[in-house]
């Protein structure tokens, strides 16, 4: 097995809240904490698929909240890049794409906000998590295991899921399910090897024309997806005040990304699918 930073969370019982991409969106993170408290759960029953910091205005505050909460977090590409002092987000965007061009603004802002102590924390979060739940063993990764910034979509070929599953099992042994993030779209897909769950992200809507974001709950071996209402107007206003007006501030309110070219054609709005 290859050597990776792997953390085994052991046996987890009862409902587990799965979420990704806080994306520096403090209002969304606070709303999620409120929802989790309403469910009677605490941070020990929450797992984050990474990218704590990204598009929105409160990189420092969100990093602090996540670090202080002691929520289990797997490293996203943003954590890796910020910890290394890299000059870009390492998201795997195609050169010249909207995502690639727009990332320059938000990544630079986030990098300037966070402290060295926060970078150090990001540098030590694990590459992969595992846990047992309802008789099954799960792995938690960010994008892919062989490539942390790999975009895996609900419409990706079966071979993509199979290759990632094999990479995970080469690192940590057999698993019955994989939980991932990165792509920003929540989904569940039954593969030949087991269930692949993308928990979605709380910091940005899934390009569906509504401002609500997504999280998931794993309970008794079944996953359910939930909409997260939060003060998206305040989050967008904070971005404008910070000068983060490359388009993602509007996405918080309209529910449509300024960067649909990252999506497979099947997942874009019809007018953009042939672009």
TrEMBL record:
<comment type="similarity">
    <text>Belongs to the metallophosphoesterase superfamily. YfcE family.</text>
</comment>
<protein>
    <recommendedName>
        <fullName>Calcineurin-like phosphoesterase domain-containing protein</fullName>
    </recommendedName>
</protein>
<dbReference type="InterPro" id="IPR024654">
    <property type="entry name" value="Calcineurin-like_PHP_lpxH"/>
</dbReference>
<dbReference type="InterPro" id="IPR011152">
    <property type="entry name" value="Pesterase_MJ0912"/>
</dbReference>
<dbReference type="Pfam" id="PF12850">
    <property type="entry name" value="Metallophos_2"/>
</dbReference>
<feature type="domain" description="Calcineurin-like phosphoesterase">
    <location>
        <begin position="27"/>
        <end position="219"/>
    </location>
</feature>
<dbReference type="InterPro" id="IPR029052">
    <property type="entry name" value="Metallo-depent_PP-like"/>
</dbReference>
